[in-house]
Fold this protein.
Amino acid sequence: MVGCCAPLIQLAVRGSCSTRALCHGNPLKEREVLVNPVNFDTSMLLPLMPVLVLVAVLIGWSLVDIIRRPVEHLPKWAWVLIVLLAVPVGAVIYIIIGRAQGERLRDEDLR
């Protein structure tokens, strides 16, 4: 089976495996498990969770803002595409360039 899945590493696992994996349509032996050669560990994502949450909040806020407020330079559908396709740079570009400015307060408005 080594030639079948050359980029993957096959390991023998102690004990029995209740599921059978497929490698290019060929069933593997019950005691073989395919392992990712990159050694990606999901615990590495834990320190990034605050950043991922902030990016999700920024994108969500930008999308809601696009829907509720007038925009400049491009139609709303274009800003939505930019925000969704260029994460998180698209949201920052929208905030800097695309967000319509509200009316400026004058001194007479405050009196």
